[in-house]
Amino acid sequence: MNAPGPDPHTAFVLGGGGRWGAVEVGMLRALVEAGIVPDLVIGTSIGAFNGAMFAADPTEHGLERIEQMWRDVAGKGLLSASVVDRVRMMARLRVAVQDPAPLRELLERALPVDRIEDLQVPFQCVAASIERVAERWFDSGPIIDPLLASSAVPGLFPPVEIDGQHHYDGGLVNSVPVDRAIELGATEIYVLQVGRLEQPLRPPTRFYETALISFEIARRHRFGSLQDRIPEGVDVHILPSANDVQFDDPRQAKWTDMGETADLIAGAYQASSEYLADLTD
Known about the structure:
- This protein is α/β, with parallel strands linked by helices.
- It contains 9 helices and 8 strands.
- It has helices at 22-33, 46-56, 60-76, 83-93, 101-110, 144-150, 178-183, 207-226, 261-280; strands at residues 10-14, 40-44, 123-129, 134-138, 160-162, 165-168, 188-192, 235-238.
């Protein structure tokens, strides 16, 4: 069921954003309650996780499965570890501080299918190929490794090897892949993003901000430049996140702190529900 039909009309595009990806869960619920059904789901990084889960079961029951996955991560401290454990992991992994095994186990429990083509809605995700220095799209085959590759943040997780190539986080090459949806023929696109797109950048005033701003430019520029080149007849809706996350937000460094998960889901659900209601007025 993976390949999109000859005329995929509606696409959900889920961007990257780590712990802030909880907002996408609220957005998905708002879309489902508004009766909006995708012909295609595309994801990057945490958006690939959420997107694959949703594509497996795009119903109320499926949403409950996604919310349970987030509750499991938040409640069990899945990615938490002591300083000593981090040092040990870095010594063992050499290029990362986080063992991907817990995420692999989580996905294996949460996903009801083993292969991308067995999802109920056609799905694709992207990762950055190290050897090819390019984006690589996955639309068929085993599902777990592409999802881990799409979310392998450099330094945090080790690169994921697939077919002899090593891959890092898809956000490095296409953080919010609206262009992929357009390329595949979608004409009604709903963008699920974690809040960064809603916040303007400013020139740095402190030395450490130069790196943060540079990273944000690299992450946003592709989507930003695309907005002036959206083809006629294509409508792109950027769902509001209600997540006021600035580029220098200190909470971003606390990537294992999932205490805000419930609030992030609820806030995005409320804001996106209101946005979608306004679309139909």
